[in-house]
Design goal:
Layout: E1 4-8, H1 13-24, E2 28-33, H2 42-46, E3 54-57, H3 63-73, E4 77-80, H4 87-92, H5 94-115, E5 120-126, H6 149-168, E6 172-177, E7 180-181, H7 190-202, E8 209-211, E9 217-218, E10 221-222, H8 223-234, E11 242-244, E12 250-251, H9 252-262, E13 271-273, H10 291-297, H11 305-324, H12 337-352
Parallel strand pairs: 1-2, 1-4, 2-3, 4-5, 5-6, 6-11, 7-10, 8-13
Antiparallel strand pairs: 9-12
Length: about 350
């Protein structure tokens, strides 16, 4: 009999990739999305899995909807990937971030405990938990020092997950994932902002790119590989917490240099620093240590930094070229006012010809 899984936040980058991965494994997949928000299913369409999963409207701040979803689906596994996931926005909405990203996890865990404590639970933790600590490389044993409302909320979620594991004997694990990117990363994240802007500049649709802290260093991996690590954690005999990373770090400037170079451009001619994009409290250095994941899960990253950038830059260039030709396809640019204005202008120009 096929396993059943619920993915909260299935419309996000990780949710969509995980849904595809589980479908390939033969799972029946249910995915939740916020009933109060405008449906944003482009990633599921992009991966050609929209009609292969069962979508359920639910909200992490509405415990009744969480109970209802779990009771209805009777899953073997629950993957909680839903959150207010943009660090910058959490400074503007700290209370909402705390409720959704933190307390929402307690609601899911309590629902599982009451309905069926044998259901396995995965919590999407984050490297942002480490903040500006002194460690040169972060492992499962490194102390946490959150530097944003988002990270503080994730810290609560991380510890409440461990608490339910230790207190109630539930299979509940945390995946402490370092930055992981892909062509379906949101445009509000710096990596996709860079590759998308580089593509527009290469095609003459834009003239400049403004960024914040160019010296911030991150450990960047490829998202489809990271969702496999999530699944591997859930297949173990005992629940545990694991760092998922590449053990290498690069600056935002390096990412920009390589993305622009990939598209035949000199980044220094187009990129400038804008104080508006600086965080009130930024994390300057994050580098993971995936030794435990490799030893226990048999997991290690395969896609290198340069290749990751090539994948993202090529895809964004291809999207804008298709848009210039008048093609319609699932992507996110039309959902952003600044991007939609370009799309609208291009459409208007074609109609005049």
């Amino acid at each position: 009999m096929a396993k059943q899984a619920i993915i909260t936040g299935v419309t996000g980058q990780d949710g969509a990739y995980l849904a595809r991965f589980l479908l390939d494994k033969g799972y029946t997949v249910y995915g939740t999305y916020r009933r109060l928000s405008t449906p944003n299913f482009w990633r599921l369409l992009y991966l050609d899995i929209f009609d292969k999963i069962y979508l359920i409207p639910a909200d992490l701040i509405d415990s009744s909807s969480i109970f209802e979803a779990i009771e209805m689906c009777n899953p073997d596994e629950v993957y909680n990937l839903a959150a207010q996931s943009f660090v910058g926005a959490s400074f503007e909405q700290p209370v909402a971030s705390g409720i959704v990203t933190g307390l929402g996890v307690a609601m899911i865990l309590e629902a599982i405990r009451q309905i069926n404590p044998k259901i396995k639970f995965y919590q999407a933790s984050t490297s942002e938990l480490y903040g500006n600590g002194e460690a040169k490389q972060q492992s499962e044993e490194t102390h946490f020092r959150p530097a944003s409302p988002y990270a503080a909320a994730k810290l609560y979620a991380h510890w409440i997950t461990r608490m339910y594991r230790e207190t109630h004997g539930m299979f509940a694990c945390n995946g402490i994932l370092f930055n992981h990117e892909s062509p379906i990363r949101g445009l509000e994240f710096v990596t996709r902002k860079i590759t998308n802007s580089a593509a527009k500049i290469a095609l003459g649709l834009e003239k400049e790119l403004k960024l914040g802290n160019l010296e911030a260093k991150r450990d960047w991996g490829f998202a489809p590989e990271y969702v496999r690590a999530m699944w591997l954690m859930m297949q173990q005999e005992k629940p545990d917490d694991f760092v998922i990373a590449t053990n290498k770090t690069h600056t935002v400037q390096e990412f920009a240099e390589k993305a622009f170079k990939r598209l035949g451009l000199d980044w220094e001619k187009y990129v400038s620093v804008d104080e508006r994009f600086q965080r009130p409290l930024d994390v300057n250095f994050l580098q993971g240590d995936y030794s435990k994941a490799m030893a226990t899960l048999g997991w290690q990253p395969e896609t290198k930094f340069d290749r990751l950038i090539e994948i993202m830059a090529d895809e964004d260039l291809g999207r804008w070229r298709r848009c210039l030709k008048g093609e319609r396809f699932p992507w996110d640019a039309p959902n952003y006012p600044s991007e939609n204005s370009i799309v609208t202008r291009m459409t208007t120009s074609r109609n005049r010809i």
